[in-house]
Every structure is written in structure tokens, then in C-alpha cells.
Amino acid sequence: MTSPNKLPYEGIRMVEFTHMVMGPTCGMLLADLGAEVIKVEPPKGDNTRKLLGSGAGFYPLFNRNKKSLTLDLKTREGIEAAHKLIATADIVSHNFRPETMAAQGLDYETLKKINPRLIYIELRGFLPGPYEHRTALDEVVQMMGGLAYMTGPVGQPLRAGSSVNDIMGGLFGGIAAMAALKEREQTGKGQKVQSALYENNIFLVAQHMLQYAVTGVPADPMPSRISAWGVYDVFTVKNGEQIFLSAVSDKQWEVFCRVLNLADLKLDAKYTTNNDRVRERPTLIPVLRERLKQYTAAELTQIFEDNGLPYAPIRRPEDLVNDPHLKATGGLTPMTLPNGQVTDTVLFPFTLHGKQPGLRLSPPKLGEHSMELLQSLGYSEEQAQKLLLNT
Q1: pTM of the model
Q2: What contacts 239, CB < 8 A, 6 or more positions away?
Q3: Of 180-189, 217-226, 371-380, the least confident
Q4: All domains of the chain in start order, with CATH
Q5: Rounded CA separation 289/91 (Å)
């Protein structure tokens, strides 16, 4: 699917040395917005291509709209080809250790001599400081950064159910690159920008840090928190089904009581205002749980839909592939995987000219664009084939 409108980063070339989630997410953001993103892979490919279990979706999700070039960066010829490519680029990104990049001559100090206009994105575990030597993973920073504490019950820290820091850290790296490109318009010079998992995680829990600063009371983990709303819960209803229901204002409480035949609760002075209902949750919620058991989840869905009350079915990720809203809005789009399988993928959750940025290139096969890219750098067909054979 190609937008009829020119995408904002068309004409920008980005070369990425990335794997896993954080680095590829950064490149995907620029790629979806029109940049030519070239994924440089080792001869055996990005190991993320081969992950099983919870990692099986990493490569196909985060590497669309990219080209694949295989180079052996352990050889002089491979490094030379990489330098030639970077000389033509606007952006380079990586999420390997800085010393690994330096050993291959791919650090910023080396590359800015080749291309002074280069924007260099370094995606790290930690920004420079006392922790920077540590090995970081999404789970590591969630544990040390308070997010796992806030997610799980007291005494049972639990990581969030998605690679939240990897994904957001990659997006912040892309935002920093956009800012650096804008600055380059005035200065003509590039720069190194950085984004880090730990600092991203701290940003995610900053609301709880500020809550403590303002109130002097530490934030409770989500399962133990005092809700800001009187009715804001998952209810188990008829046939053991579950549904999330809420009434977050006094007007919604009035409607809630009317449509569910709860006139006695509406007239009870203990529940007059939202703050009253928050204080009385220990008495109110058990009553609601018992009374709502007479309804099926489908019946409650229709009642809440008809009356503009907040609700949500409890769904699993696999349920979303058939979500009628996503299908109607174009938030899901067909994509071909490297093995030939066709599946839907999920687009970024924003629109340009009324549409979410779409799919131009499916996730590339390993080395799919190597020949054309090397020839564009001045290698003859014979030279390119020789270089690729050596990988």
C-alpha cells in the first residue's frame, strides 16, 4: 500500500546495524515515514530472524519497509563497503555495544570524518554514567526502574506484557534523529544522538515519582492501588465471562445505575460522589460483582455501548487479527514474510493525510538488496559478486 502523498522523509538514507527490537524499531519509524533504510546484516543474518517463542514476532514486525545488505564486517573489504555506503547516508543507527562498533571502525568519531553531515543514533542500555557498563535488557530495566514493581502485586514484581522499553526507546531514538536532521538544516553538520532503555523506563514511571513528590506518599503497585474512580474494574459475569466496566464521573454513575436497575445504590448517600464511591469501594464493589452476575458479557457490552459508558471486552493478542475496527480503519495491512507466508501486520498508530503510513516493502529476505546496493556504490557486477561470495 503506497500513499499518494509524498512521505516526509523521502530522500533520506539510513543505514542500520541493529538487531532484536530497540534498533529495528527506530529504523522502522523512519522507514514508514519514507526514508530508505538499509539493514546491514552479517553473512548468517540478524539472529533475530531465527528466534522462537516470544521473540518469533520481532523480525517480521520491526523490519518492514527496509532493504537488506549482507556484509562481513570482520573483513577489510566488508568494512570498506560499509564506509562507502555510509558516505552516501544521512543517518546511521546501531544498538550494539559502542566498543563493538569502534572495533569495526563504525563509531561516530570515525564515521564523521567520512561524512560530517551524518546523524549517528546510538541506542543503548544506559546513557553515559555509572551504569553504562551494565548489560541491559527490557526486563532488567523494568526491574531496576520500578516498572515491574508497579505492574505486579506487592512482593511479586512483574514485567509488562510487551517490550515497552525497547519499542519506546527506539522511537525516542528516531525522534532525536528527526531533531538532529532539523538542526542540520541550519548548521550543515551532523551529530551523535542517544536513546537508552533505562532512561526510557524512568520516563514511564515518572508519573509515580512525581506523585510521591507531590503527595509524600509512595505509589502502590497497580493491583494494590487506591483507584481514582469508584467503578473501574474487571467483573466476572454470567457463564464465567469477564468484562471491564467503569463509571468515572457522577453523570456516568447516574446512567450506570439507571440502565442496570440499581436505583437503590443511586439513592444511597454513601455513593453520591465519585470520591464517596472511592472511599466506599470495599462495600460497593462486592455488591456490584454480585448483581452483575445476572448479565452476560454480550448483554453488558450492548448496554454500555448504547449508553456511552466506558467498557472493554477482555481480549488476547490473537483476537485482534480479526478486530473489525482495525480492519475498517486500515490499521492492519497484508505483508509477505521472508518465507512467503502472507499475514497482516500492524501499522503505526498515527495518520498523515488521513491514513496511517503504509507498507512499501515487506521484511526483506537476507541479502535481498545486496547486489543492487553494491552496484549503486560503484562496484561492478563481478566485484559485487566476489564481495558477496566472500561473505
Answers
A1: 0.93
A2: 296
A3: 217-226
A4: 13-205+323-389 (3.40.50.10540), 227-314 (3.30.1540.10)
A5: 55
